[in-house]
Every structure is written in C-alpha cells, then in structure tokens.
Design a protein that fits this description.
The chain is an alpha/beta fold. About 30% of the residues lie in helices and about 25% in strands. The strands form 6 sheets. Strands 6-7-5-4-8-9-11-10 form an 8-stranded mixed beta sheet, with helices on both faces. An 8-stranded mixed beta sheet has the order 17-18-16-26-27-28-25-29, with helices on both faces. The chain has a 6-stranded mixed beta sheet with strand order 20-13-12-24-31-30. The structure holds flavin-adenine dinucleotide and S-adenosylmethionine. Flavin-adenine dinucleotide binds next to helix 9, strand 14, strand 25, strand 29 and helix 17.
C-alpha cells in the first residue's frame, strides 16, 4: 500500500492551479465555471433532471477526478436551484491526489458565486485519507463520497448505480491512465439504466473506447477553445464482453421497500442514534426506542471515549473500515462543541514494547504523515506536556469525544421521535409491519426495524444466533489537578488517559470476559491505575493518584459488544433456517455458487458489534445501513460491506458443515 499524497500545484498569475505531476490545468483558462456548466451540467441535462426529482428522489453523479471540486459545487448549486426540498443529491468522485485543505481553499476562492457551497465543503474537507471518505453536507441533503486513490483501484470496489458520469481526468494525452478500456468498463458496470455521460475531450480513440464499453457517444460543439466535446448515454453492457462478476445472492441488495419510509430503531446508543440520523436525513420517519430514561446510558455513556485508529499496514477490511469511519466521525464532530463535547487534541500511542514499536514503524511507512507519524521520546513529551518513557505514534487528527453528546446531537433531527423507557421485549410482524412489544403493549410499529441494541439483540429469536459477546469494561474518573492540566493529548499504551473534560480525566479501560455485574470494582480501578503508571509515572504523580484510596475512586462499567472477527455486524438479516435450506449445497461444495435469491427477513436490519471502537465505526456503519435500505451507493468498498454483513456467519457455518451453529 502506498500512502496517498496531496496534489502538487503551481499557481498562475491569475491564481489558477496547475498540476505539476500531470502538467495540466484543473479547469479551462478562459472560464472554468462556464466550461463546467456547459460540458458537464448541460450535456447531462441536469437542470431538467433535478427539477423532475420527486420528494424522496435522488440523483447519483459519478466523476473521475475530483480535483478542486468545481464540478461538484456547480452541480450542487444547480441542484439547490431546481430540486424540490425533499430530493437529494449524491456525488461520488475518485481522486488520486487530493488537494490539501489550504490549496482547496485557495482554488475555490476564485469563484465568489459558489462561496456558500465552497464554505460548507471546506468545513467538512477534513481527515481526507485513502479509501472511501463520506462527507455529509447541507444536513444530509447532499452526500459526497470521495474515493481517494487510483481510479482503477477504487472504482472496482464501488457499489453504486450512477445516473450521470463526468469524465474529467486531465487531457488523455497527459494522463492516458484515466482513459482506458478497463476504466470505461467500470463506468459501464456502475451505470444505471439510461445513465448519461459527458467529457471535455473529443479525442477519437477515447470516443471509440467509451462506445466499446456500452455507451453511445456523440460529438457535440464545444465551448471556448474546445471545438468539440463528447456526450452520450449508456445503452447496456456489450453482448460480446464477459459479464461483470455478479454479487453473491447472500450479499445482494434486498429489493427496495415500497411505501412509506418509517423505521423503528431499537437501542439509543451510538449505533442506534447514528442509524436514526442517517435514516432521518433521507426523509425517513424514525421511532428510536431506548429502555432507559435517557440516550447513551450503556457502553455509549462514558464521559470520554478515544477517537483512535487501530490500523493494519496490510489494508484489511477492518483497517479500511477504521480509516473511512474515522474520517466520517471526525467530520461529524465539527458540528459539536469543542472542549465540552469533544476535542481534537491528537492521540499518542506509546511504543511501549519492541513489538509495538515494530508495528508502528510499519504503519508510519504505509500511511501519510498527516494521518499518523512517529515521534521520538523528546517530541512525544513536548506534544503530551508530560514526562514519558518512550516515544510513539501520533495521530494529529484524533482526540476524545463525549459519546452522549454525539448521540444527542444525532437524535435531534425533527423526523426522529425518541421513546425513552421503551424496552422492546419482542418483535412481531403483523400485516407487513414490525411491532415492538412489551408484553401485550405495542410500543411502536413500522415496516422496517433496525436492531441496534448491542448484544441485547440476541433476545429476539431471529437474531439470537448472531455470535455477539459482551465484554465488561470499566473506566476510572480522576479529578484534574493543577499539575495534570498540562496533559495536552490523549496518551495510550495498554490503557488510555485523556486531557480533562469539565474538571475530570477519564482513565480506561479494563477488559473482563467473565463478570456480568456492572457495579464498578476496586480491583479494576487498581488495574486502571497500573495502566496509568505504564503510560507515565509523571502523570500518575501529577494526578496524585498514588495517594488516592482505590475504594474512593469513581467510575462506571458497561459492556462492549464484539463479534468473533472484530468487525461490526451491519446490514439486512436473512431468515436463518430458510438461508440454511436455500444454500445447503454449499456445505458439500464451498465453490458451488447457487443463484437462488436470499430469503431475507423482510425489513429487519442489524447495526451492532462495534466492540471497543464504536466512535469510529458506528456512525459510518449507520450510513452503510441507510445505503442498504435506501438502495444508494455504499459508503464503503463492496468487500468491506460484505465483511460486515450479518449473513457472513451463516455462510461460514454452512461451508464448515455447521448449519445453524455459527
Ligand atoms: C469501558 C469502555 C470503554 C470504551 N472506550 C472506547 C473508546 O475509547 N473509543 C471507542 O471508540 N469506543 C470505546 N468503547 C466502545 C464503545 O463505547 C461502543 O462500541 C459503543 O458505545 C457501542 O454503541 P452501541 O450503540 O452499539 O451500544 P450501547 O451504547 O450499549 O447501546 C445499546 C443501547 O440499546 C439499548 N437497548 C438494548 N436493547 C434494547 C431493547 N430491546 N429495547 C430498548 N432499548 C434497548 C440499551 O439500553 C443501550 O442504550 C468503550 C466501551 C467500554 C465499555
Ligand atoms: C482536471 S482535474 C479535475 C478537475 C475537477 N473535476 C474540478 O472540478 O476541479 C483531474 C483530476 O484527476 C485526478 N487524477 C488523475 N489521475 C488519476 C487517477 N489515475 N486516479 C484518480 N484520480 C486521478 C487528478 O489528481 C486531478 O485532480
């Protein structure tokens, strides 16, 4: 894996960016705005298509080459002018060399009429790292999914139906890699029926290659110094080309639900609140059921959690999820109050033994320094403000979060009704509606139900066999002292300690696989203090922790909820017995590929298993869940969404010859 690098730019005397790598301009010398509008918006008939969108409708635009985002902002502006209030715009764009924030700001300053849109983009253009990065704009009316990396690596991982393509990857002669048959086959694979396409070039070989992929391209008069440009539409996958690999039926999308968009979300922690927010942003009416008197009373109720990335240098599904999830959560936090709800103070992971130091060195060579970099002991001490025994890996964009604040902010949407003291004991489907029941009382009903109650989802018969485990954890709250306030960043070794929030530091966290009782124990406070000693004896002393009687310490305990592969469980649920029956042949031959449709449990979805990193995974997984439900572009690579799919356990069990015993 190569770390992503920012675009290297030169600026001309009129302040326009020029790519050093490709020796080409980002937009036309004459009028970038006019050219964008003519080549991409007009040729794809976007004004008329935006105006025709119904309430709840959406248009998905795909682009090769995000660059300065000019095309995106122009499309957004047009959408804003012509689409009804309840319609949505989804823009997916691939970019190998993302502009730095400063360069993006400088480039977009050229277009004063786009300023209201550019400001929103710039406010969210944070933590743009490799892979899929989702940005939620205009309260969810506009979604931007950036695929950071080479187009030919990223697009094959995309699961989307694109209504209009913008081809804008520098001139074919300067950048032939963006104009290949392989890439056009990807555009065809992703094209929705009737998809349109346009580009500023009229180069003959480009036109022929796009046509060969299944589009019908036409030359049309150009603008400015462009004599001719190309526009076209998708006719269908060419009969002579081998069909693209079909998605396995157990990971296919369930048929979109017709009728009213109402959902029950059961569980008011990070997963439930984020699910409710993602659905409400898409116009769904949500009833959020929580058994306690307030949201975020269980795992999501700690005073401070760490926004931290445990990555792998090998690009595993988990690592990809973490990198995309981190960026997404980090951007959401911009809406919250810094210092009280969260702080982007950075996270320092100490190299506390040789194995950890080796792992950190590998990570430092696999990722860009603005995501993570090594600090020696001196640098680490300066950064943290305390004496340390070793250096480590620093994540400048990490920090701590008060999870209840994130939950409350997400549940605030007017389409979300929060129902406290609503303990759903049973779920029943009556006339196509899921009823949440407490004894004989119907608490709420809707055609869709999302189970977001961590390990408690096992109480429902149809999700009882999902392999979720509870792991008890306890944090210790330590009052800040005059000397401890200097702590300037979260510091982690086996445990973690955060700079103070409202006069207290959070120190965490224990792991106990056996204890089912949530009363805080003295032994775990002692264990947490031991972890603090390993982090920094200096900080321990500054906190006066040696003199604190452990039995006087305060804290709280809760259950994490984990799956055997440490990935969350997110997506539509199948009826287990019917699944085993439908795909029984797999138990005899794992390579057998039955094409029978998956027997989905209509309208039942899962968002659980967020383990020790719900802050990073729960918000993006909620976008994933909403994308499954609303039949939208997935915010993660196909392979990652499959790795998180609820059906993976039933599938593995079948292949091992262990049906119904995952
Ligand atoms: C000690 C500790 C430290 C942690 N530290 C970090 C950290 O530093 N960084 C990080 O990212 N993560 C951390 N985590 C993990 C993180 O807190 C979890 O991943 C996250 O909170 C999970 O959110 P959730 O919504 O899935 O579960 P929960 O927060 O447990 O929410 C589930 C909710 O569902 C409700 N519920 C369940 N069943 C029903 C029902 N049938 N009817 C009605 N309501 C129901 C429950 O009451 C609960 O409110 C920590 C966890 C613990 C325990
Ligand atoms: C002409 S610029 C795009 C202009 C942009 N659409 C705008 O509105 O500003 C072309 C972009 O394609 C990107 N690019 C070039 N080769 C690429 C590749 N192989 N994969 C992904 N992006 C690539 C460049 O980094 C550059 O940002």
């Amino acid at each position: 894996m190569n770390p992503v690098s920012h675009a290297q730019l030169d600026w001309d005397d009129q302040g326009r960016p020029h790519s050093r790598v490709f020796d080409d301009v980002y937009f036309s010398d004459k009028s970038g705005l006019e050219e964008t509008r003519y080549v991409f918006l007009e040729q794809n008939r976007l004004q008329e298509r935006f105006a025709a969108l119904p309430v709840g409708g959406r248009l998905v635009i795909g682009e090769t080459g995000f660059g300065t985002g000019l095309n995106f902002l122009c499309a957004w502006q047009l959408f804003e002018e012509h689409a009804v209030a309840g319609a949505r715009l989804h823009f997916v764009s691939v970019e190998k060399y993302p502009l730095s924030h400063a360069d993006l700001q400088r480039a977009l300053a050229l277009w004063s009429e786009l300023a209201p849109f550019a400001e929103q983009l710039l406010a969210q253009y944070i933590a743009i790292h490799q892979g899929f990065q989702r940005l939620i704009l205009d309260n969810g009316r506009v979604t931007l999914t950036l695929l950071i990396g080479d187009a030919l690596e990223q697009l094959p991982q995309l699961d989307a139906q694109i209504d209009a393509w913008f081809l804008d990857g520098f001139a074919p002669a300067k950048n032939p890699d963006m104009w290949t048959a392989e890439l056009f086959a990807e555009l065809a694979r992703l094209a929705a029926p009737g998809s349109t396409i346009s580009t500023f070039t009229s180069t003959g070989w480009v036109r022929r290659l796009i046509n060969a992929a299944g589009f019908k391209m036409k030359r049309t008069p150009g603008i400015g110094h462009k004599w001719e440009i190309l526009r076209g539409e998708f006719l269908g996958w060419p009969a002579e080309a081998p069909a693209p690999t079909a998605v396995k039926p157990w990971f296919a999308r369930p048929a979109p639900l017709a009728g009213e968009r109402r959902a029950l979300v059961i569980g008011g922690g990070l997963a439930g609140c984020a699910t409710a927010a993602s659905l409400a942003a898409r116009g769904w009416q949500v009833s959020l059921l929580e058994r306690h008197a307030a949201l975020a009373q269980e795992a999501s109720g700690n005073p401070q959690g760490v926004l931290y990335l445990k990555l792998s240098a090998h690009g595993t599904a988990l690592s990809q999820l973490i990198l995309s999830g981190f960026g997404h959560t980090r951007r959401l936090l911009e809406h919250l109050q810094r210092g009280v709800d969260w702080d982007g103070c950075g996270v320092l992971q100490l190299a506390f033994n040789a194995k950890e130091a080796e792992r950190q060195a590998q990570l430092a060579s696999a990722f860009a320094p603005d995501l993570l970099h090594l600090l020696d002991k001196e640098q680490a001490q300066t950064r943290a403000g305390i004496t340390l025994e070793q250096g480590g890996l620093f994540f400048p964009e990490g920090g701590w979060v008060h999870p209840p604040a994130l939950c409350q902010w997400q549940a605030k949407h007017p389409l979300i009704e929060v129902l406290h003291h609503h303990d759903a004991l049973e779920l029943k489907q009556v006339d196509g509606q899921w009823q949440a029941l407490h004894g004989d009382t119907v608490l709420a009903c809707a055609s869709v139900v999302v189970l977001a109650g961590a390990a408690e989802i096992k109480r429902f018969s149809f999700s009882a066999d999902l392999p979720l485990k509870r792991i008890r954890g306890q944090i210790t709250r330590l009052p800040q002292t005059a000397q401890s306030q200097v702590l300037a960043t979260v510091v982690c070794a086996e445990g973690y300690v955060a700079p103070p929030r409202l006069g207290e530091h959070t120190l965490g966290a224990s792991f106990d696989f056996k204890n089912d009782d949530l009363t805080p124990t003295v032994a775990e406070h002692v264990g947490n203090l031991e972890m603090l000693r390993e982090i920094s004896v200096d900080l321990l002393q500054r906190l006066g922790a040696d003199n604190l009687a452990p039995e006087q310490l305060e804290g709280r305990a809760a259950f994490r909820c984990t799956s055997p592969d440490y990935l969350p469980i997110v997506g539509p649920l199948a009826a287990r017995e019917a699944f085993d029956h439908t795909y029984a042949a797999l138990s005899k031959d794992a390579r057998h590929a039955p094409d029978a449709p998956c027997p989905w449990l209509n309208g039942v979805y899962i968002n659980s298993g967020h383990g020790s990193r719900g802050l990073v995974t729960a918000p993006l997984c909620s976008e994933l869940l909403a994308a499954w439900l609303a039949d939208e572009p997935l915010p993660l690579p196909r392979s990652v969404s499959e790795a998180c799919h609820p059906n993976r356990f039933a599938l593995r069990a079948l292949i091992r010859g262990n049906a119904s015993k995952s």
